[in-house]
From TrEMBL:
Residues 571-580 have a biased composition (Acidic residues). GO terms for cellular component: cytosol; nucleus; Rab-protein geranylgeranyltransferase complex. It holds the Pfam family RAE1_2_domI_C. The keyword Heme does not apply. GO terms for molecular function: GDP-dissociation inhibitor activity; GTPase activator activity; transferase activity. Residues 91-166, 561-615 are annotated as: Disordered. Keywords: Cytoplasm, GTPase activation, Transferase. This is RAE2 geranylgeranyltransferase.
Amino acid sequence: KNYYGGNWASFSFSGLLSWIKENQEKTDINDECQDWGKLILDNEEAICLSRKDKTIQHVEDFCFADRDSAEDVEEAGALPKLPVFGATGAEGVAQESEKECPPMESTLPEAESRQPEKATDTEPASAMEGSGTEITSENGGSHGTALGESTLESGKTEAAPSEISAQEPKKIMYSQIVREGRRFNIDLVSKLLYSRGLLIDLLIKSNVSRYAEFKNATRILAYREGKVEQVPCSRADVFNSKQLTMVEKRMLMKFLTFCLDYEQHPDEYQEYENNTFAQFLRTQTLTPSLQHFILHSIAMVSETDCSTVEGLQATKKFLQCLGRYGNTPFLFPLYGQGEIPQCFCRMCAVFGGIYCLRHSVQCLVVDKDSGRCKAIVDHFGQRISANYFIVEDSYLSESTCTNVCYRQISRAVLITDQSVLNTDSEQQVSILTVPPVDLGRPAVCVIELCSSTMTCMKDTYLVHLTCPSTNTAREDLEPVVQKLFNLNTEKETEIEELEKPRVLWAVYFNVRDSSGIDKNSYDGLPPNVYVCSGPDSALGNDCAVKQAETIFQEMFPTEEFCPAPPNPEDIIYDEDEIAPEESGFSNSPETKPESSTEESSSGGSTAVKKEDTEE
């Protein structure tokens, strides 16, 4: 691939269009090295890897914004006549101009590439916003990561809630989206970070947090009886809520207090252990609206598949995360979820790691006598030896995955002109769980991002929808989109539709969920080859962190996983450690890359790229 993160990546708008085009066409990959088989010795055998990424299916994109005469529109700051990965996938007004817009955000690992640029006439004010508290460990130590608690433009008059509903949203043309395409950082996977989750703890412990910035999710929403409303979740929210009666407030606080230490009161839930959490809630002193809030917006679990204990665990996790960094349990990384893998790449590079873009692998080389993998062969015809090999599931061929049964995740990404719930502040990060439309269908998780998250241009919102797949992504998610948003492009629409946020652009796609698959399900893999999965459908990142730690401990059982790093100037290298290795790769600064690649360094980051990389 020519971008970081695989299916965890983030793209600018033009980069996403290129990605869409690639996955819609599924073009064959030409081998640069046709005779790599000659590199396999008599006592070796090859396990061929997949030449195509088949983890993405059913990609459909739609433009609902007005298409004005904008054939010559370019992204702001685009460099003309530079080679771009693939071809852009936009049909319509911006097709030619998109070819000249390299997706720089998704290919540069250096920290400087994410800093807000100098303000220009076309730059939204939100790009210059962002200040707040720092992410700290439990003992109060600072880790240098600012929370992007952004404020609105200085001098801007905030409208009262009653005035906002009557205001007409600013009309956004498709050409404006193209022109401001670099303001978008669109994630392939939609997740949030629990403030006391495994990933936040790992970021703090490993000091990777210094490479990223975060913004609080500002509100939890619920969809009930055809309306979107805010859910009170903290103690202050509950007692300040005008939605709940005084009796309901007492009911809710009593139940949430029980959930925080439910293990100490087994007599209150043991007889319902074989029931669903929804059935357990009906036995409690809770009104239907409170049951709905707890099930869908606090525990965020399935009404039909979640047991009582699982629901209590989810509720407790939600409550324990409240108040650490804000009034909700969640954080979102500025510039998108794709920043997280890049942050780990930056830390890895500081200590000699090398990340190769546009550097595909042909096969694994296995020793017939020992049964262990001893090397890989890349598309330049070069053998690279190692003791351990970690392979992402999508690289394995169909013959290796014959007995593997995959799940699918349905995803949609929308660009809209206003929030699903307007308030006196435009800069809201919201999470909403929409209950199943029909029995047997999953609930849909909706995450709405404002421009101060650095994921979309000013006056727009970026909306992610996710659920486990039952059909194609469009079939799973379009009914929910139609409930929450206005898809009608006709001028004559019903008043009810006009009150909804208007969708300007949308893409639907299915992505493979390879989490939870046992390694023994893969045929013929050597014992020193480890398989990691792509993104799962859960809201948090615990699955990925647990899997990374498990693989690491299997390889290095006596080592600590992601310890706090030493200062680079304090590291003393032994002569053996810095000696050049036979493979041509080394931690030594004197080591030169092969002629087919070039090494670029900036601020301690290292990446090996092909000669035709942009800038």
